[in-house]
Amino acid sequence: MPPLNARADAAGHAAISGADANGAAGAVHDLDRLILLGLAADLHRHSRLGRGAAHEADAIASDLGTAPRHRWIAGHWLAALHEAGLVSRNAAGHYHDLHAPRRAELAAARTRMEAARLALGYPAELAQLMLRSLRLLPSLLRDEVGVQALLYPDGEPATAEAVYRGNVISRYLNAAAAEVLRELAERATRPLRILELGAGIGATTADLLPVLTGRPVEFYLFTDLSPFFLDTARRRFDAGFLRYALLDIARDLPPRPGELDLIVAATMAHNAPHVGRLLGQVAALLAPGGRVLLIETVREHPQSLTSMPFALSTQDGPPRRLDGRAGTTRTYLGREEWLSALEGSGLRIEVDLPRPEDPLTALSQRLLVAIR
Fold first, then answer.
1. Where does the Methyltransferase type domain lie (predicted)?
2. What's the pLDDT tens digit per position in 193-224?
C-alpha cells in the first residue's frame, strides 16, 4: 500500500488513543449473541417453531403477524439463527428444533452485552438501541413502528449519532478519512469539487469539513435521498462552499463527467442495486487523479438484525439486488468483493483499512479509497 495508507491508519489510531481493541472479537461475539438469543426467544414465544415439527420461513412470518413488505425478514433471521446453531434446517429448507433460551441465559447475555459495550467504548445509546429493538420486534414486524423510532427516539439524534459516529470504529474510520482528504487538499492545484452521496446525519461530513477550513473549495455537494437529512445538515453545518441536493443513487448521479476531485460514500454504497454499476458511474465523474472514498460494512453482524432489515425493506419486500447479492438477502459485500468492484471500475486502491492484523477488523467496517 502507498504511504497514504500508513498516514490514514496513524490518524485513525490517534483518534482512538487510549481505546484497547484487543478484546474486540470477543466483545462483538457477545453483542451478536444477545440479539440471536433475543430473536430465538421471540420466535419460540410467538411462532410454531417451538412445537417440534419443521416449518417454512413463510409460515413463521405468518405466525408473527408480519406485514407483507417485511415477510422476507423472518427467513433472514432464521438463516442467521441456523448459522449460529440455534435452529436446525432440513434438506427441504424447513426449520425445526429452535433453541429456547431460558431467562437466566438471557440475563447473562445482557450482562455480557454491557461489558462488551464498555470494552469497545460504545456509548450507552447503542446498547439501548439493541434492547429497544428487541422489545419492539412485534410492532416492527407488523409495520406499526418504523426504524426511525429506533434511531430517533423522541425525535432526538443521539442514538443515530452513536450508531454512525460515537463509537470506536467510526472514530477511527472518520479520522482516517479526514487524513485522506487532508492529503488531497494539500496537493490540489485548483479549488476542490467534492460530492458526498447519501450523507445522512453527516456523521462523516462532520470530520471532513474541518479539514477544508481555509482551503480553496469550489463546492462540497451534500446529497441524500431524504429532505429530512438535508434540512438537518443546513442547520448543523456552516460553510460557504456547502451545497445541498436530493439524490437517489439507484437512479442517475449528477451530470458532471470528469470534474470531481472526491466522491464520498460513507456506509451507504451497499444500498445500490448494483454496486459495480454505481462505481462505474462514480469513476466517470472523477477527474484524473480524483478519488472515491468509501466507508463500508463488509459483514452483517447479528447485532444489526433487529434494525437494519427494517430500514432496507421496500414497499415490495426485500431490497432489489442485481449484483452478486441477487437472489439472496445479503446486505453487504465482502472486502474482496469491494476491492474487485473498485478495480473493475478502472480505479486503483490506495487505502484499505484497518490493516489485516488490527483487532479493529473484528468490527467489520472498512475505509476503502481508490484513485482514477
1. 195-292
2. 999 999 998 999 999 999 999 999 999 999 99
